[in-house]
Amino acid sequence: MASPPKKAAATVDFGKPKDKMKALWTLMALLLLPPETLAARVSRTRRELAPGLHERGIRDAGGSYCEHQDACCHGRDDGCTVPYLDTICYCDLFCNRTVSDCCPDFWEYCLGIEPPFPVQRVCIRNGHKFPTGATYRENCNLCTCYTNGQWNCENHACLINTDMVDAVNRGNYGWRASNYSQFWGMTLEEGIHYRLGTIKPPTSVMNMNELQMNMEANEILPQHFNAANKWAGMIHEPLDQGNCAGSWAFSTAAVASDRISIHSMGHMTPALSPQNLLSCNTRHQQGCNGGRVDGAWWYLRRRGVVTDECYPFTSQTKEGSPPAPPCMMQSRSTGRGKRQATARCPNPRSHSNDIYQSTPAYRLSSDEKEIMKELMENGPVQAIMEVHEDFFMYRGGIYRHTPVAAWKPENYRRHGTHSVKLTGWGEERMPDGSNQKYWIAANSWGKDWGEHGYFRIARGANECDIETFVVGVWGRVGMEDMHHHKK
Ligand SMILES: *[C@@H]1O[C@H](CO)[C@@H](O)[C@H](O)[C@H]1NC(C)=O
Ligand SMILES: *[C@@H]1O[C@H](CO)[C@@H](O)[C@H](O)[C@H]1NC(C)=O
Known about the structure:
peptidase inhibitor activity; cysteine-type peptidase activity; binds 2-acetamido-2-deoxy-beta-D-glucopyranose; Pept_his_AS; Tubulointerstitial nephritis antigen-like; disordered N terminus
């Protein structure tokens, strides 16, 4: 909370004993006056006896001081003081003659009467006064000025936590953290609730048969690989899911877009529509409230989706909003395994409503080498991972989950399931001489996040479960596509 400003102190800092001396002189002067003048004086209101600070707009800030200390003195008592803002106030009867020299609740609490001048209960922040009910935001927490003149702030764990950013950057964790304006003001709960959105597949899917790969036991793979270099122009940029917990649809569309581009040898380079999945793949799926990647792959195989240009992203989760807008188009079979859209693009500027499909997705083993080989031969893969509180603040480097929230209350530690696109790997020599292996992954939090929308994460250690469930797929590309779609 803001420390009380100097100006507020000035309103109450009288230097009590000196003030009392002055009062004494005034009293003696009064006694020396002719009797009728004295009578007139005495009949004057208490208001006039006060030093008139209130007339200059200076008021007590309000609060319970005498009450808290239970310290009402009945005589003049310089020892009867209570800390008030950054000075002291008095709870003694001498207070009758001033407003601000006594504690704000002196009149009410000690004398049981209304204060002579209503105490304006204001809250102070950055030297400014705010009335009861005023609010301000401190990151993700709303602070409200209560009737007692105190700011009262909510106590949520925020998505961007400055302490944790500093702790990551001070610690030797191999990655850097920073503030993100798109996350500032959100609670950690909201981050988990709105920014992820992949439901962990049930055990039956998790245990789905792994692809058997023909790999020499001592096959040598390159130290560095980046799909964007091998397949230039076919690897799509990281997406931005906004506050839509639909990473299941974003990562699926992202991997399928790259795979179709690669498998058509660049004849088609569609950026597939996550919105098409969010709105139309609704069986057992919850749009922007989360969904399963196996369901998304089923839909891509059986129904197919159009491009993002045709069916642009419009969903953003808001409290109480439906998980996604209604589905604007279906697809129907045209025979020979091909499908076509049943409606025009929901975006009037786009006329190309071709449907793109995939073959059945296949699960890879969790072996680092097999994932690498698949990535290198066939293109980017989809990976499910657990996102922890510190990941949101990732700015660059090789991510590992850190214990920076370990000493904080339990509500500062949260995690949720997410899915991303792996596009490469590498190794980096650390200052201590060790070699750190990493994956390169595209997230769906926009290109301003991380390393231009990408992040690197420790490889070979199943960091955040990233090697637990990895999926590949083939685009369904026919001979005719090699000519038809080429622009
Ligand atoms: C202080 O206020 C009380 C209550 O109004 C009154 O009884 C008392 O005489 C006052 N004392 C002085 C010194 O004005
Ligand atoms: C973080 O970013 C927000 C928005 O850009 C800004 O208002 C806030 O002051 C920043 N916080 C810190 C601690 O730098």
